[in-house]
Amino acid sequence: MSIKKLPSLTFNAGEYVVYPTHGVGKVADVTKQNIAGSELELLVVNFDKDKMTLRIPTSKIQHVGLRKISDDKTMNEAFATLKGKAKVRKIMWSRRAQEYENKINSGNPVAIAEVIRDLYRNENIAEQSYSERQIYEQAVNRLASEVSVYSNCSLEEANKKLLDILAK
């Protein structure tokens, strides 16, 4: 069994990044810190919305899935996914909810777009349950935060852009 060497990612202070389980954050600093007698190089990422700061050892960046903001190809694929027809599987809600949560926490914009597309309800269609609404809003917030950085617009404009795509 061979070990695949992934390309090393470098992040600079002031750059926006995506942490799969928390969404979009901003790199505050790359520092060295003495922890338990050994010196570690840490990437400090701030998540203003959650008022949270993560310190990630640079050696673990790829393991945790930290990545740069998506490129044009990935975002266009996510937008195309939103335009598609909803694919709701006929399994128990608890199982579907777990699958949706996993897709959201994957940090993949296309997978998050699938969740949004599948849970989107137009005004004239039946109401959503509370848990459906929670998961839908979590997915919209996660994708909108990345779209706002990608498009260099406000979070409100990004939300509107996503809803406009869904309404068509």
Descriptive report:
α3 packs antiparallel against α4 and α4 crosses α5. By secondary structure, the chain is α+β, with helices and mostly antiparallel strands. Helices cover 45% and strands 21% of the residues. It contains six helices and five strands; from the N terminus they run ββββαβααααα. Strands 4-3-2-1-5 form a five-stranded antiparallel β-sheet. β2 and β3 form a beta hairpin.
Series of secondary-structure elements, N-terminal to C-terminal: EEEEHEHHHHH
Main sheet, how many strands, which sense, barrel?
A: 5 strands, antiparallel
Number of strands: 5
The helix/strand class is alpha+beta
Strand percentage, roughly?
15-25%
Annotation field: number of helices: 6
Percentage of helical residues? 40-55%
The chain-level mean pLDDT equals 87
For the termini, the CA-CA separation is 48 Å
Rg over C-alpha atoms, rounded to the nearest angstrom: 18 Å
Q: Which regions contain 5 or more consecutive residues with pLDDT less than 50?
A: 1-7
Shape: elongated
Oligomer class:
single chain
| Order of neighbouring strands in the sheet with most strands | 4-3-2-1-5
